[in-house]
Specification:
By secondary structure, this protein is of the alpha+beta class. Helix content is about 30%, strand content about 35%. The strands form four sheets. A six-stranded antiparallel β-barrel has the order 2-9-12-11-10-13. Strands 6-5-3-8 form a four-stranded antiparallel β-sheet, with no helix packed on it. Strands 19-1-20 form a three-stranded mixed β-sheet, with no helix packed on it. α2 runs antiparallel to α3.
Length: about 400
Amino acid sequence: MSRWKIALIVVAVALVAVIGWRMYSSRGTAGGAGWQRGGDSAPVPVTVVAAVAQDVPVYLTALGTVQALNTVTVNAQVSGQLKALHFGEGQEVKQGQLIAEIDPRTFQAAYDQALAKKKQDMALLTASQSTLARYEELMKRNFVSGQDLENQRQSVRQQQAIVAADDAAISNAQTQLGYTRIVAPITGIAGIRQVDVGNLVSANGTGIVTLTQVHPLNVMFTLPEQNLAAVRDALAADPDGVEVAALDRTDAHIIATGVLKVIDNQIDTATGTFKVKSEFDNADSTLWPGQFVNVRVRVRTVEDGIVVPATAVQRGPEGSYAYVLQPDDTVAMQPVQPGGDAGDSNVLVSKGLSAGTRVVTEGQFRLKPGSKVQPLAPGQAAAPLSAEELAKLKAAGGPSGGGGRGPRH
């Protein structure tokens, strides 16, 4: 037999072997598929929870910035050498507390000079008034002329004006002397000092220290313009009590509470948002100026709102929906309209459900309208496979263990 005939026979035998193996594999796969198709008719284990009716506060959330209620940079109002500082950096100072002193000697001398000048002019005024009194007596006996009397009266008036100017000069000198003692204009936290003792300071020059009022303080934040009506209605209903909460960066804990104070008088056309100011007592200094916080504003409360777990509401091409358990343990797809969050893990449903309706919260990915289900309570395990189901599973080449069919999460 020639070599090419032997090669042809070998190729034909190999081809027959491959075809036979593929046919065997197809029968095995068909058998497994048959088990899967048969399994579709078995109830699908799902977790079911009943919708409840409760009062639900409606919140708006935003990112806010903490701002000091007042911030003042303390400057010298007169020039001179800084003599002493009477505050500690980072400590709270009270309004009116002495915080710095400027060398007062030059200003004390100017004040004393103004006092001396007044005494001198008062002596001249007294002499002029005495002369005027004599002229008036002599005028009665025609010993002086009327012109001399009038001239003396004018001299007295001039001396009185000079004394009045001296009073103004004394007041000014006293004010300048008082500026050498710098007191806190507000109650606040002292920042880092900007000048040291011994340096020359000038009027309205470099600030000495910045005081920041933190009790109370403000939290500024912005909201979308579509929320303006809700915020205004809430403020109109309760001008002094619209609750604002500041939460930590993870939105897990409330770190401070305050009240809404002011809505800005215009909407930012570039961003489509409006500014809101809130005020916090901050008695324990939890908030600090410049800090970023998450803000939550309660704008209203829905009475007897329908609440379900957030996992019950699914999103589809035609909108939100939930699988509702029917009396025959099948499910139906029910369109719903979410109305906002109701706590950390629940959602308010404004339309589509009623109190007591049982909805599927886990295992929805295996469902379709009309699917037969095995309803389970949260945390409940599904019943184990029956002997018949195990036999079918073994015949299909599946695992031989007897594990249960828990809902898929």
